[in-house]
Amino acid sequence: MTPVRDITVRAEADLVAQVLEVRVVAGQPVAAGDELVLLESMKMEIPVLAERAATVAEVAVAAGAAVQPGDLLVLLRER
Amino acid sequence: MTVSTDASTTKPADRSRLRPAARLETLLDAGSISPFAEDDGVVAVRGRVDGLPVMAFCSDATVMGGALGLRGARVIVEATGAAVDEGCPIVGLWHSGGAQLTAGVHSLHGAGEMFAAMTRASGRVLQLSVVLGPAAGAAAYGPALTDVVVLAEQGRIFVTGPEVVRSVTGERIDMASLGGPEAHGRRSGVAHIVAGSETDALDRARRIIGLVQRPRRPHAISSAPARDPGVHLPSRPQRAYDVRPVIRDLLDAPDEPTGFEEFQSAWAPNITIGLGRLTGQTVGVVANNPLRKGGCLDSASAEKAARFVRMCDAFGVPLVVLVDVPGYLPGVDQEWNGVVRRGAKLLHAFAEATVPRVTVVLRKAYGGAYIAMNARSLGATAVFAWPQAEVAVMGPEAAVKVLHRKALAAAPADRYDDLLAELTARQVHEAGGMQRAIELGAVDKVVEPSHTRAAIASVLRTAAARQGEHGNIPL
Question: From what superkingdom does this record's organism come (chain B) (predicted)?
Answer without folding.
Answer: Bacteria
